[in-house]
């Protein structure tokens, strides 16, 4: 069958998503981390298959005077879907959508000479619970169970319509549906799904069967990526020399001890501070940073530098932005705990300074880190 106009619209939708991702590579943003956005939209297209009840149609024609029946059927068509979902947590989402499973038909010729042609199409709405099981940093296994409310529109033509009580029947029914698939994340915002779904359908002539829909979909998370430009680091000027006054001639006292310069550098594993692919400090990470601040009690802090690092998975541009966002998130938390904002600087190194081999999982884990260097003095 010919490709419907709606599929062409889906292709334009997919191109728009990809172009928007390329545009964001160079565009600064100032909002919160968009990976935490709970809402997403998507569109998919593929092939739908079903089975036409050949035996029932032939038997009906034979009961109405045919001595023999030739039968041809078209049991596949192009299908598409549009959907919106809400991510409830890391493992579950609720999803609602519109689907069009295409049209399926048959052509029967009889002896004595006669024909009957039939066609039925299915479209409607669905509501699913979607489960997600992460298999790696980018791949997830999907499973879904839900309900579909489908409208079946049938149309029959030919000179053997005595076998059909209504040449243009319509039926609307609520039925279950299930599905399995895989998801691959290109970025925090854009992912692709490959899925197989089974819709239980009523076909408008008192039959109840299944339509299988195999599709590829693009999924786009709503929101904008957080991106803050790094603050240029300027080395602090040397402290002015301390001028000591001579002691009073009557009172003899020792001068106060001179401040001793101190430099502290602490490295945090990214998994200790952040969830995967995110840049919001999680509760465990806040406790780790609180431990660092407690060790700095009594220290006169001149400069704090937070530096983000990533592994080599993903593009250079994406990893650079992620490292900057994570450094900025650590800075924001330190400021919230009373550190002077003018003394905290950030840098993002992306994947440019690995400390281990990125070819192994253990090495990549070591490379995903944030360092905090503190320069100051103690008495």
How would you concisely characterize the structure shown here?
The protein is an alpha+beta fold and 379 residues long.
Question: What can you see in these coordinates?
Answer:
The protein is an alpha+beta fold and 379 residues long. It has two domains: 5-17 and 29-221, Porin (Beta Barrel), CATH 2.40.160; 260-378, 60s Ribosomal Protein L30, Chain: A. Helix content is 20%, strand content 45%. The protein has helices spanning 5-24, 54-63, 270-273, 283-295, 316-336, 361-367; strands at residues 39-50, 68-74, 76-87, 92-111, 114-134, 139-158, 170-185, 190-202, 208-221, 260-269, 300-309, 344-350, 369-378. The strands form two sheets. It has an eight-stranded antiparallel β-barrel with strand order 1-3-4-5-6-7-8-9. A hairpin with a 4-residue loop joins strand 5 and strand 6 (139-158). The longest helix has 21 residues, at 316-336. The protein is rod-shaped, with a radius of gyration of 33 Å. Mean pLDDT is 81; it is low at 1-5, 11-36 and 224-235.
Cα distance spanning the termini: 83 Å
Approximate shape: rod-shaped
CATH architecture of the largest domain: Beta Barrel
Mean pLDDT: 81
Percent of residues in helices: 10-25%
CATH fold-level label of the largest domain = Porin
**Residue windows where pLDDT falls under 50 for at least 5 positions:** 1-5, 11-36, 224-235
Major sheet attributes: 8 strands, antiparallel, barrel
**SSE class:** alpha+beta
* CATH class placement of the largest domain: Mainly Beta
* Counted beta strands: 13
Query: Number of helical runs?
Result: 6
Q: What string gives the helices and strands in order?
A: HEHEEEEEEEEEHHEHEHE
- Radius of gyration equals 33 Å
Number of domains: 2
Oligomer: single chain
> Order of strands side by side in the largest beta sheet?
1-3-4-5-6-7-8-9
Q: Per DSSP, what share of the residues sits in E-state strands of 2 or more residues?
A: over 45%
């Amino acid at each position: 069958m010919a490709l419907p106009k709606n599929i062409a619209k889906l292709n334009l939708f997919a191109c728009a998503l990809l172009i928007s991702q390329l545009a964001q590579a160079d565009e600064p943003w100032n909002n919160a981390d968009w990976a935490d956005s709970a809402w997403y939209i998507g569109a998919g297209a593929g092939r739908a298959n079903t089975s036409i009840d050949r035996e029932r149609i032939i038997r009906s024609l034979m009961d109405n005077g045919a001595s023999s029946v030739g039968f041809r059927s078209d049991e596949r068509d192009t299908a598409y879907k549009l959907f919106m979902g809400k991510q409830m947590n890391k493992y579950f989402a609720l999803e609602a959508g519109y689907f069009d499973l295409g049209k399926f038909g048959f052509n029967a010729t009889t002896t004595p000479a006669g024909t009957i042609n039939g066609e039925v199409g299915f479209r409607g709405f669905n509501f699913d619970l979607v489960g997600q099981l992460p298999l790696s940093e980018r791949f997830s296994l999907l499973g879904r169970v839900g309900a579909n409310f489908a409208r079946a529109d049938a149309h029959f033509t030919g000179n053997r319509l005595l076998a059909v009580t209504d040449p243009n029947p319509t039926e609307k029914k609520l039925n279950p549906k299930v599905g399995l698939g895989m998801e691959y994340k290109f970025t925090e915002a854009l992912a692709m799904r490959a899925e197989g779904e089974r819709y239980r359908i009523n076909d408008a002539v008192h039959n109840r069967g299944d339509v299988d829909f195999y599709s590829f979909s693009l999924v786009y998370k709503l929101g904008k990526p957080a991106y803050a430009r790094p603050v240029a680091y300027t080395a602090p000027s040397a402290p002015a020399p301390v001028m000591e006054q001579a002691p009073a001639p009557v009172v003899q006292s020792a001068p106060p001890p001179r401040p001793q310069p101190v430099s502290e550098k602490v490295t945090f594993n990214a998994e200790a501070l952040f969830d995967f692919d995110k840049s919001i400090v999680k509760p465990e990470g806040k406790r780790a940073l609180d431990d660092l601040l407690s060790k700095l009690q009594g220290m006169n802090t001149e400069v704090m530098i937070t530096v983000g690092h990533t592994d080599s998975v993903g593009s250079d541009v994406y990893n650079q932005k992620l490292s900057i966002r994570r450094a900025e998130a650590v800075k924001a938390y330190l400021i919230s705990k009373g550190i002077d904002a003018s003394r905290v600087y950030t840098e993002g190194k992306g994947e440019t300074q690995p400390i281990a081999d990125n070819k192994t999982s253990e090495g990549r884990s070591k490379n995903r880190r944030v360092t905090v260097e503190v320069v100051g003095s103690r008495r």
